[in-house]
Amino acid sequence: MDTPQRALVVDDLAGSRDWLARALALAFPGIAVQQAASLAEGLACLEPPPPLALIDLGLPDGSGLRLIEALRSLPGPTLCIVATVFDDDAHLFPALRAGAEGYVLKDQSPEHLAEMLRGIAAGQPPLSPSIARRLLRHFQPEPAPAQETEALTARETDVLRLIAKGLTVAESAGVLDLSRHTVAGYLKAIYRKLSVNSRAEAALEATRRGLVNNF
User: Fold this and answer.
1) Is the dihedral angle over the CA atoms 212, 157, 200, 165 positive or is it negative?
2) Where is the HTH luxR-type domain (predicted)?
3) Which of 114, 144, 156, 190 is deepest in the core (most CB within 10 A)?
């Protein structure tokens, strides 16, 4: 974005308008700042559309979202930045869906806000740090729910103990008075239930569960 020559500030509090205007002046020396104290006043300032708009959400006659949507419907490109005290999802995401390209909180100095605004030319979205963290958390994939380990049967536990002590399938079959194929079947079920792929991994799991010492 080129350095904006004009900006619109929409906020019902005079002190907030002055704070935003000062930040704009620090960020872009010589910029012309037009101020509006309500949604109606803001809507009356859209011809021609300003290159940059700082908009509060809670206006006395409506939501600042309506102003953002109105700016988005005009042909001229306007960078819409929300300036608000609300840092919750219920305000953040509707603002972004309406077309806001920045979201800053009124908890910083004009100098800090000016630094954020200067980053616009470099393509940096003007986001307060807490808002950026909230966005990152929102789009991070949720961890997959932990899968419960299927319990081993008593006979599978016997096989696991023997395998963990170093016995072969044939030796384990002899101890348990079972066929070799039956023990091999139990071992396959053990691998599946414990999510392991080798006798060594099965032995480690048996040790972790305390089965070896209990044998």
Assistant:
1) positive
2) 145-210
3) 190
Plot region of 30 (φ>0 → left; ψ -120 to 50 → alpha; else → beta) = left
From first CA to last CA, the distance across the chain in angstroms is 73
pTM of the model: 0.62
Collapse the DSSP code of 176 into the 3-class scheme (helix H, G, I; strand E, B; otherwise coil) and give the result: helix
- Same domain assignment for residues 69 and 169: no
* Bridge partners, residue 54, by sequence: 9, 81
Distance (Å, whole) CA 59 – CA 75: 25
Asked whether residue 52 is domain-assigned, the answer is yes
The pLDDT-based confidence of 214 (bands split at 50, 70, 90) is very low
Whichever domain contains 32, its CATH number is 3.40.50.2300
User: Structurally, how many domains does the chain consist of?
Assistant: 2
Q: Looking at the structure, do residues 11 and 48 belong to the same domain, yes or no? A: yes
Q: Which of 113, 139, 165 is a domain's end point?
A: 139
Count of Cβ atoms closer than 10 Å to residue 120 Cβ: 21
State the Cα–Cα distance between residues 104 and 115, nearest whole angstrom: 12
Whether residues 26 and 84 share a domain: the answer is yes
* 48-84 confidence digits (pLDDT tens): 999 999 999 999 999 999 999 999 999 878 999 999 9
The whole-angstrom separation of Cα 160 and Cα 199 is 9
Structural domain that includes position 169: 154-208
Dump pLDDT digits (tens) for 22-39: 999 999 999 999 999 999
Q: Is 50 exceeded by the pLDDT of residue 215? A: no
